[in-house]
Amino acid sequence: MTIAIGIVSKRSRWGPGEIILASDSQMTFADGPKDLDAEKLSIVRFQNGRLLMVHAGYVQPAKKAVRTIQHLAKTERIENAERVIEKGMREVRKALLDGFDFSDERKKTYLQLDQKHEFLIAYYLNGEPFLRCADNYSCVVFPLENDKCGAIGLGKELGHYLLKEHQASDGDFEFSDLAAISVIERVKANVDGCAGPCQVGMVVPMANEWECDVSIFPRPLVENTAHAINNFESNILSDRKSQLNKFQVEFWKQQGMMIYGKFAEDNPMLKQMFE
What is the rounded distance in angstroms from the CA atom of residue 36 to the CA atom of residue 199? Predict the structure, then answer.
């Protein structure tokens, strides 16, 4: 079912800022099969810029929504991006429901379960970053609760937690691309249903007549970076286990002697435990 994240960088190695979208590569089709090497990042071209979208959930309705939005965007300016996205998603929602005599409750479960898909959307307007989300039930583009980062998909809860961890050490997300790859790799390792190579895209503001443009990171670069990050995380985990074990032994010695006192000194078994 996927993990996808978005990060707004106020300061980056490339310039004054960027927006990173990243995801795993597992897609689940409505009839059950899975694709572990699928593209989830989609570029939408407007008359004066390109934005980036990444989807989570069922691939077939999500791809239909992307194609519809891409078609509508051809004659629109990026200032109207949210309206265009909402219009495209509503067209797809209507098409999904046409021909079914569903009750209101069945419509809800059909859209939220049987055909569920959602998006993260990234673009710039007048130099200001926009990181938004939308789902196929409401078909409304919303700001994220955290204006610097967010996650969608099956692994979103762990994704949110890990993003907060990175934000605590790098408040401006200067290394947003590395943070994104790290989060995706750690979610993949811990959440069943998130798998496949990591994908990364970047949106940057433009200084000409275009408001923003998009770059997709080359796959070898992402894979090499993921490999290096995984090795680093493995070393940290090994060291943490060692340090945690050392702490627990020392803590128990201190607390045990405090609790049992003279009794521990006089009891051979307890004395051995605290030595």
Answer: 12
- Structure tokens, 182: 């790290």
- In one-letter notation, the amino acid at residue 214 is V
Neighbouring CB atoms inside 10 A of 251's CB total 10
Edge to edge, the sheet with strand 128-135 lists 41-46, 49-57, 117-125, 128-135, 142-143
Q: If you write DSSP's letter for every residue of 167-183 in order, what string do you get?
A: HHH-TT-TTHHHHHHHH
Q: What is the dihedral of CA 219, 220, 226, 231, to 10 degrees?
A: 170
- Enter the pTM of the model: 0.85
Cβ(74)–Cβ(18) below 8 Å: no
Looking at the predicted structure, is the pLDDT value of residue 180 above 70?
yes
For residues 252 and 85, what is the distance between their CA atoms, to the nearest angstrom?
58
Domain extents in the chain: 3-217, 242-274
Q: What are phi and psi of 187, to 5 degrees?
A: -65, -45
CA distances from 158 to 135, 153, 154, 165, 263 (A): 20, 10, 9, 11, 46
Distance CA 9, CA 170 (A): 10
Q: Which among 203, 197, 175 has a CA at the least distance from the CA of 185? A: 197
Say if residues 68 and 91 touch (Cβ distance below 8 Å).
yes
| Residue 261 pLDDT greater than 80, yes or no | no
Asked whether 121 and 133 are in contact (CB, 8 A), the reply is yes
- Rounded distance between C-alpha atoms, residue 130 and residue 80, angstroms: 13
β-bridge partners, 214: 203
Closest CA to 3 of 181, 231, 136: 181
Q: Which CATH class is domain 3-217?
A: alpha beta
Token representation of residue 79: 């200032």
Residue in 166, 139, 156, 117 with CA at minimum distance from that of residue 8: 166
Q: Taking 70 as the threshold, does the pLDDT of residue 269 lie above it? A: no
